[in-house]
Every structure is written in structure tokens, then in C-alpha cells.
């Protein structure tokens, strides 16, 4: 079993100095452990959301490839 999680502040509103708009965390968990990566995307809301899905799928691909 593998799980994928994405959370963050896509924008355009919200955010702060410590949690800026575009801040995104992507995580993948499996029986081998949990990997969490932090990103700060600088695009529009739709671009940030798209980039989050792409890095999540890429991280998932890497975890599955190593299994």
C-alpha cells in the first residue's frame, strides 16, 4: 500500500511570512517509510495546484521504482 498527500497554500490569498502563498508539502508513505518534501511555487493558484500534482506523481514514481 502507498499513500500520497498534498497540502499547502495555493493562493492567491492567504499566506504569511512563515507560510507564503505557494508553500506546498508533498508526502508519500509506504511500508518503507514516509518521505515529505517542501516546495514554494511562485505561480498562479492553478499553476501551483498543477505543479503540486506533478511533483507528487514524480515522487510516487520514484518510490515505486525503488520498491
Structural class: alpha+beta
Give the number of DSSP strands: 3
Low-confidence spans: none
**Helix-strand pattern, N to C?**
EEEH
How many individual helices?
A: 1
Q: Main sheet, how many strands, which sense, barrel?
A: 3 strands, antiparallel
Per the principal axes of the C-alpha atoms, what is the gross shape? elongated
* Chain-averaged pLDDT: 96
Task: Compute the CA-based radius of gyration.
Answer: 13 Å
How are the strands ordered across the major sheet?
Answer: 1-2-3
Give your account of this protein's structure.
By secondary structure, the chain is α+β, with helices and mostly antiparallel strands. 33% of the residues lie in helices and 33% in strands. Strands 1-2-3 form a three-stranded antiparallel β-sheet, with helices on one face. The radius of gyration is 13 Å and the shape is elongated.
List keywords for this structure.
67 residues
Topology readout:
Layout: E1 3-8, E2 23-30, E3 33-40, H1 45-66
Antiparallel strand pairs: 1-2, 2-3
Could you give a quick summary of the protein structure above?
This protein is α+β, with helices and mostly antiparallel strands and 67 residues long. Helix content is 33%, strand content 33%. A three-stranded antiparallel sheet has the order 1-2-3, covered by helices on one side.
